[in-house]
Amino acid sequence: METLTVQRVIAAPIADVFDWCATTTNYTRSPFVLKARLARPGAGAPYGVGAVRQHTWLIGWFRERITVYNPPYDFDYAVDRSFPAARHELGRMTFAEVPEGTLVTWTTRFQLPLPFIGAPLTRAFAKPVIGHVFGKILDAADTALTAAPAGRT
């Protein structure tokens, strides 16, 4: 299994950053996410525990289930199904207030389930590609949350 962590500071309040990142449809603001939808709302909040999110990226399809939801500090998810298939142990986004805004830490632990070549292929190809996509989603969050309001320069 490989662990991938991507971090970014976004100059916006923690609650705004958490809400943006929890709302899966925002991910389509990244050029790598083609479709994203809430397939089933969660308990107590649309993206709360039990919510099912579906994403179609340029590199695959993912069905995720929210397993922990603690706004505005963290949420965890499990990838229940994907194409291409992957073993997945952890998906987590954490949010911490810092002087510059909000520190987002996005961590996942996964591996392609291919005998003999799964680990090297995960390390050499999947890990950098997924890291790049995570970064682009966080770039989109930064742009959306820090853009000057209309009429202000």
TrEMBL record:
Pfam families: Polyketide_cyc2. This is Polyketide cyclase. It comes from Streptomyces natalensis ATCC 27448.
